[in-house]
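Meet my pick.
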Amino acid sequence: MKRPHIAGLRGTFRTAGDSRVTAYSFETITADEALNIQTGDYLTLHSGPAARAVVRYLAATPDLPARIELSVGERTVVFGQNLAGLSLRGALDVTDGSRLVIGDADRQSTGGTLGHDALYGGEGHDIVHGLAGDDRVQGNAGNDTLYGDGGADTISGGQGDDRIELGATGDLHGGWAHGNKGDDQLYGGAGNDTLLGGQGDDAITGREGDDYISGDLGNDVLFGGAGNDTIHGGDGDDEIKTSGGDDVVDAGRGDDIVTITGSGTTYVDGGDGVDRIVIAGDGKDVVLGGAWADIFEIHASVPPPSDPTHWDEIRDWSADEHLLFAQVHAVADILPRSYSEFVAADFPEAYRIANEHIAATGAIYVAAQVGGNVFVFADTDGNAANGADAGVMLAGRTLFDIALSNFL
């Protein structure tokens, strides 16, 4: 790499331990700049991916404290007492087009370059744009707004209530974002992103790509967006929503609300807690409520599939749980609810008899056992002549596991 020149004394800036961080050198520094850096000074980045980065200031000669080393390892301490010259300068630009920025206690508004930048906010409420390149951005203290822009970026919010947006034009490798402490807002980009909420009540949106989303601690709001996403709620009472794609959801511990939309195949595990799982998609969904008695809410306005392999499944139904067909529940106080059940030899017979029960007797709910499964049919529009408008399969269950009392 070509070395830029600064009038004065000679020094070195070197990075090690991370192949994404470039090694820089500069030929000279001024005497005033050298006096602001003391041998033995350290800078530590306390959270997120940058927690591995340590900046250490050493002497190039016994009399000249002009050497800076950035390595990836254990955490140490923050700025020394005499680094005002470096922090006030704000940024170190080098000839490969990249930039190192270290903020101070004031509000910072800064941007990267077309290269792979390292941008670190200070204690204020910072606004940072990574621009093009695979950037490493850390907000640190304060309520920061951090943009990855283009490239596969690595962004950590640090302390405070931060807003983080990965690049809308990133490649398929995607970016990495961690809110850390505070109630953060995280937005994915066009690639396959990793979005981690950390501590606090976070709001995370995956957008495009096959994203990995984790709320971690706190009562989080998580939305997968387009793509085949993997979503973990973590601890806390979370709200999770899928949208298109073949998604996998583990709601985790807490009383969660999971809403399935879109036409993909979605797998949901509610985890520990009294969960509410809303099945409102057009695809084949497989649901486990997890521990405790859960509520399964069904939104549908078209007849259930004639092929049983396309039915939505509840795979761990227990007799103390509840089904709520949304359209029926809305008028339950003015229309009587009725229930019938029977055993059928096969699914076509079950489908035919269930529609007959609805049309002839006005049954709202019909449960049909076929082998080791129970198919639940519901008339949700009040037009009995049209038969069932919605349905769900209770996998591995019998008629002993369901009754009128299970419907809300």
Observations:
- The longest helix spans residues 347-361.
